[in-house]
Amino acid sequence: MDGFSDLNLFSLVARHRNLAAAARELGVTPPAVSKRLAQLERRLGVRLMNRTTRRLSLTPEGEVYLSNGSRILDELSELEQLVTQSRGEPAGLLRVNASFGFGRARVAPAVSEFIARYPAIKILLQLTDRPMSLQEEGFDIGIRFGEVPDARVNARLLLENRRIVCASPEYLARHGKPSVPHDLTRHACIVLRENESAYGTWHFARGKRTETVKVDGALSCNDGSVVLRWALEGRGIVVRSQWEIEGHLAQAELIPLLAEWALPDANIHAIYLERNQLSMKLRTFVDFLGTYLRAPGKVA
């Protein structure tokens, strides 16, 4: 086993802090990863990780090996990028993180078309219920909604996107339309429970005026597609993204409400670390994804 293979293996295990997760990514068994890690420690003559039944932790020697090894791997990656750029064809592995809903509906189909066009690139797409750290989890690209929270990453706008308050015609025929945000307190609102934000609290702005409304209703869920289905069935008022409901709005299956009031920004960005910004494979993928998402018929 060469030194670079050792570094890659150790970096992957250290990122996951779990042999089974590292094994899944490598496509091997956990015992195989454990054996390779033990061989590495024997070769170096030091223990790199403390093992428990639930989790792995780095020893001081492991911290040093990871810190300096990550720098070497980054330099190797930059060298490979420099060399492969000369042949004009992007190649290599891209690790992409996106949310479950948008990832399934939009990113996964884009990845399928991208791989057909650029067969020398491999993509690992990981969908999660909340954004993952690029640095800590080893992703090259993250697809994010709204404001980009981390100043240490670069961001590229992929698609402009608004959050919209809406309900089905059947619901509005029975209960009427809210005229101002506070009217929502008298309506059945379908609440999406996600991330760590206070659920059921909707924030509105109109010019310099802001209003926060605590909504309630019989239904709530942590899955956006379920919330949307309930709204289409006339169960209440929801807040959903433009990309998800544009087709339903066009078919009048959902009616937009409180159009003079704006909800928090929901534009869709690709984020990536500074060291990856010159990568041909990354630039090619981000360019492709932005074009794919903005193409007619791809957003609704």
TrEMBL record:
Q: Which organism is it from?
A: Caballeronia choica
The superkingdom of the source organism is Bacteria
Query: Do you know which InterPro entries this protein is assigned to?
Result: LysR-type_TF_proteobact-type, LysR_HTH_N, LysR_subst-bd, WH-like_DNA-bd_sf, WH_DNA-bd_sf
Record family assignment: Belongs to the LysR transcriptional regulatory family.
Upper taxonomic lineage: Bacteria, Pseudomonadati, Pseudomonadota, Betaproteobacteria, Burkholderiales
UniProt keywords (A-Z) are: DNA-binding, Transcription, Transcription regulation
User: Where do the HTH lysR-type domain residues begin and end?
Assistant: 1-59
Q: Which GO terms describe its biological process?
A: DNA-templated transcription
Molecular function, one GO term: DNA-binding transcription factor activity
* Name used for this protein in its record: LysR family transcriptional regulator
Q: Which Pfam families match?
A: HTH_1, LysR_substrate
